[in-house]
Amino acid sequence: MSTENTLEHKIDKADLEGKQEYTITVYAENRIGLLNRIAIIFSKRKINIESINSSASEIEGIHRFNIVITESYEVVRKLSRQIEKQIEVLKVYFNTNEEIIWQELALYKVSTDEIAEKVTVERLLRQYGASAVVIRKDYTVFAVTGHREETDALVKALEPYELIEFVRSARVAIIKDSAGFHEKLKEFEAFEPGEELVENEFLDKGEKIFTM
């Protein structure tokens, strides 16, 4: 199976003019050491990974990795080809932000007293669609899902109101035009069918065959 045929991306003029944010989606068997080998591919080329996420996919036994980097189209294409050379990797896609639907989860720990005493804080949290995850006497933890610009904006807005702690998850993304990897897997199986299981006719005649 040719790697050239498995890398999928829509090329447009904007892609070739300079660096932009890409999400690389990798479908692979979840084997020990794979994530480390993928990270080495980036580190050897001195490319910074801005976000990386690993999770189960829609296919049992197959994991999905979302890797976010800012690079040129040609660099991302070569990286994706290199990743696909790993034995466990079944498929690699790379897409611009316009070609995917993506979200990140952010958690904010804020002083409960600040929320109770200042209406401004409560309004800010409502404005950004924050939901309370934990409420304690000393602090409250809120969760927000959205794009990085939105979660960053809330960090800045909460800084004057005793923002105790902030953490953000890696990106999760779905490709807009994808029909799902299971459809692609069917194509692979049709193109390269596995060998049929052949029953050993001597399997239950061990004593007769191997007795001296």
Automatic annotation (TrEMBL):
Per the record, the gene is ilvN
The biological pathway it contributes to is: Amino-acid biosynthesis; L-isoleucine biosynthesis; L-isoleucine from 2-oxobutanoate: step 1/4; Amino-acid biosynthesis; L-valine biosynthesis; L-valine from pyruvate: step 1/4
Judged by the first EC level, this protein's enzyme class is transferase
GO molecular function terms listed in the Swiss-Prot or TrEMBL record = acetolactate synthase activity
Protein name (record):
acetolactate synthase
Q: Which family does it belong to?
A: Belongs to the acetolactate synthase small subunit family.
**Could you tell me the keywords of this UniProt record?**
Amino-acid biosynthesis, Branched-chain amino acid biosynthesis, Transferase
Asked whether the UniProt record includes Transferase among its keywords, one would answer: yes
The protein's annotated catalytic reaction(s) are: 2 pyruvate + H(+) = (2S)-2-acetolactate + CO2
Q: Does the keyword Ubl conjugation apply?
A: no
Q: Where is the ACT domain positioned along the sequence?
A: 23-102
- What lineage does UniProt assign to this protein's organism? Bacteria, Pseudomonadati, Bacteroidota, Sphingobacteriia, Sphingobacteriales
Its Enzyme Commission number(s) read 2.2.1.6
Listed InterPro entries? Acetalactate_synth_ssu, Acetolactate_synth/TF_NikR_C, Acetolactate_synth_ssu_C, ACT-like_dom_sf, ACT_dom, AHAS_ACT, AHAS_small-like_ACT
PANTHER family under this entry?
A: ACETOLACTATE SYNTHASE SMALL SUBUNIT (PTHR30239), ACETOLACTATE SYNTHASE SMALL SUBUNIT 1, CHLOROPLASTIC (PTHR30239:SF0)
Q: Name one Pfam family in it.
A: ACT_AHAS_ss
